[in-house]
């Protein structure tokens, strides 16, 4: 994954300093309790780029609006089939023009938990590969050009983009917006990273996770990504993306990334998702700290950073942990290992997660416990604010 700019971490840290005061670490011992998880994701908005009078970019035989819509509908069908309890909302489900502002409004009004914007790319005939964007400042002129091309849709709106004339997309404004939305930025990056991994598994060239000032991402208020599925200006990529089989493969990769993202947020290990979903009586038995339980009589939340999952027990002295002091708990018949322990302090845990990723624990993520039970992370953050 492309290294995201240092100031993004700094802006996140600044916001978390304001939102989550205090916090301390403490010792770890072990005991066993039972936990249950509630679904984190209830509503998803899938945005097929362009449409109607706006065809988007062109290949030799197809255009962006058709490719995007076909992939979006296939992705939505996969989610609805596997997770009927999740509401899927499309910004468009047919060939119609939807203003950029309205696409964001649809997501915000639906109170979506995730916004997935699907596009196709345009450059020289030799350019190829898939890339995923989160909101931020571009690092290269090509990233800037992509954002400007996708944002240019506003000039096809009835008022020729007049309502955006005073809209500030300057670097300072984007950084300020990142401050407002930084609670979602880490989740956006997590999902974007999962997407790129799945595209790579499919055999697509991984162009990485990037940042740019996309208007539609700027205006949404939830974890949001914009996917550039490939280059229609590349004959081989156009053939793949214009074909039903290729579109289905891309949608399946997005769905796999979504499942991984959902599981990570909800504390479910991907290896056991299928077997767990077949049984309505499945319970989990995580091992949590006795110190945590004793200190949580007043409902304090404990944040930890999960760094490893294994089907077999791993010795605390294993080189896998690179000398870290780790805490073990068991869930879904898997051994899970965390580092750090932060009382009512998500900011500190999140910062520690970033440090661990830089140390080589690329898939580190924050988990939370309360009263001896692992709980939903978003719920934990809200509880820690009180």
How would you explain this protein's 3D organization?
The protein has about 375 residues and is of the alpha/beta class. It has 2 domains: about 20-35 and about 285-385, Sporulation related repeat (Alpha-Beta Plaits); about 45-265, Aminopeptidase (3-Layer(aba) Sandwich), CATH 3.40.630. It has 12 helices and 13 strands. The protein has helices at about 5-20, 65-80, 100-110, 140-150, 170-200, 215-220, 235-240, 245-265, 275, 290-295, 345-360, 375-385, and strands spanning about 30, 45-50, 85-90, 115-120, 130-135, 205-210, 225-230, 285-290, 300-310, 325-330, 335-345, 365-370, 375. A 6-stranded mixed β-sheet has the order 3-2-4-7-5-6, with helices on both faces. Helix 1 (about 5-20) crosses helix 5 (about 170-200) and helix 5 (about 170-200) packs across helix 8. The longest helix is centred in the middle third of the chain and has 31 residues, at about 170-200. About 45% of the residues are buried.
Question: Would you spell out the secondary-structure blueprint of this structure?
Answer:
Elements lengths: L5 H14 L11 E2 L10 E6 L15 H19 L4 E4 L9 H10 L4 E8 L8 E6 L5 H11 L19 H31 L4 E7 L2 H5 L4 E8 L3 H8 L1 H23 L6 H5 L9 E2 L1 H6 L5 E10 L15 E6 L2 E10 L2 H13 L6 E6 L2 E3 L1 H9 L1
Parallel strand pairs: 2-3, 2-4, 4-7, 5-6
Antiparallel strand pairs: 1-8, 5-7, 9-11, 9-12, 10-11, 12-13
Task: List its traits.
alpha/beta; Alpha-Beta Plaits; Aminopeptidase; 2 domains; 5-stranded antiparallel β-sheet; 12 helices; 13 strands; 20% strand; globular
